[in-house]
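Structure (tokenized):
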């Protein structure tokens, strides 16, 4: 049992297991993960003996071992089964793991922000998002929390301040804010599960998720605006290799790719490859604008000379496979 858990009665554990069973079954089918059905949970006994509760517990733990963090993240952000009740039960279930490992911590990290985002009042301004409001929203899962924040969590506020000043995705990746936050989580050990730490991490992840989405919008709009400007200058193809694309990509295709990413990012915003590609595509478009690409036949040299320059860019780092929960 982790440091944060409020003891559960067998009745509460059985109730939550029955809530989770349809969600787990759908997730296993979604990713074609092989695990026999749980007969005791499928039967739906209202007052089972202790042995049946233990069988259900072991089935859920076996499913947890097979389900990867990215699968849980993707499923919960696209399924209609992720109700407030289901998310609370799932978070409580993972907080009651007897021996949580790194994968369990990463799942908790994601579930904290997912549950909070589902339950938080809207609209919610980041500046008004204090620890008291986060703790109040998470109370059904964590219970009452003493908000005496230990010193080792203090650097997270500085990382949030740094992130708020990042003008684009390239900046936030280059700053290594996400890597620094994961180092804090990993080095916490069992202290990660202290209730006050869970509240602090939930607030951090929620604000970072919002920051990420804001920068995604900003970069996508910059790419689309740049493509429009290039087309007005008669440029129909650009070198997209820096964005892991072809050497002569049409502006029409780049626009279609960018539009398709709107769905991808909001379905699973943690994928490293799309993040890298979007950062690279903005570089590609801005470099084409700055270079003043050759005019197409019939376009005047004066029109080509009107090419503007893009904003200065930091050297582009390589994003790792997880740029969120804002979890890992």
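Design, position by position:
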């Amino acid at each position: 049992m982790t440091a944060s858990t409020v003891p559960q009665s067998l009745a509460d554990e059985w109730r939550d297991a029955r809530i989770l069973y349809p969600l787990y079954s759908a997730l296993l089918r979604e990713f074609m993960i092989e695990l026999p059905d749980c007969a005791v949970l499928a039967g739906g006994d209202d007052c089972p003996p202790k042995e049946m509760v233990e069988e259900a517990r072991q089935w859920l733990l076996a499913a947890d071992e097979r389900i990867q963090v990215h699968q849980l993240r993707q499923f919960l952000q696209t399924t209609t089964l992720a109700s407030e009740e289901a998310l609370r039960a799932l978070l409580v279930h993972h907080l009651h793991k007897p021996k949580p490992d790194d994968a369990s911590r990463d799942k908790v990290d994601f579930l904290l922000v997912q549950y909070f985002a589902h339950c938080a009042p809207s609209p919610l301004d980041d500046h008004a998002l204090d620890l008291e409001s986060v703790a109040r929203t998470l109370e059904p899962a964590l219970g009452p929390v003493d908000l005496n924040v230990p010193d080792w969590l203090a650097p997270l506020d500085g990382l949030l301040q740094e992130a708020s000043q990042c003008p684009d995705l390239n900046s936030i990746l280059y700053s290594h804010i996400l890597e620094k936050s994961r180092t804090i989580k990993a080095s916490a050990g069992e202290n990660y599960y202290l209730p006050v730490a869970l509240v602090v991490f939930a607030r951090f992840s929620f604000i970072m998720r919002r920051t990420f989405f804001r920068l995604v919008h900003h970069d996508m709009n910059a790419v689309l605006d740049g493509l429009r400007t290039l087309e007005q200058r008669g440029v129909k193809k650009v070198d997209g290799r820096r964005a892991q694309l072809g050497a002569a990509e049409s502006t029409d295709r780049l626009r279609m790719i960018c539009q398709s990413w709107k769905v991808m990012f909001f379905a699973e915003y943690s994928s490293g490859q799309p993040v890298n590609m979007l950062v690279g595509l903005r570089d590609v478009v801005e470099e084409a604008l700055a270079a003043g690409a050759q005019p197409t036949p019939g376009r005047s040299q004066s029109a080509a000379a009107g090419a503007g320059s893009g904003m200065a860019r930091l050297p582009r780092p390589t994003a790792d496979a997880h740029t969120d929960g804002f979890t890992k």
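Reviewer-requested clarification: The radius of gyration is 24 Å. Residues 212-304 form one domain.
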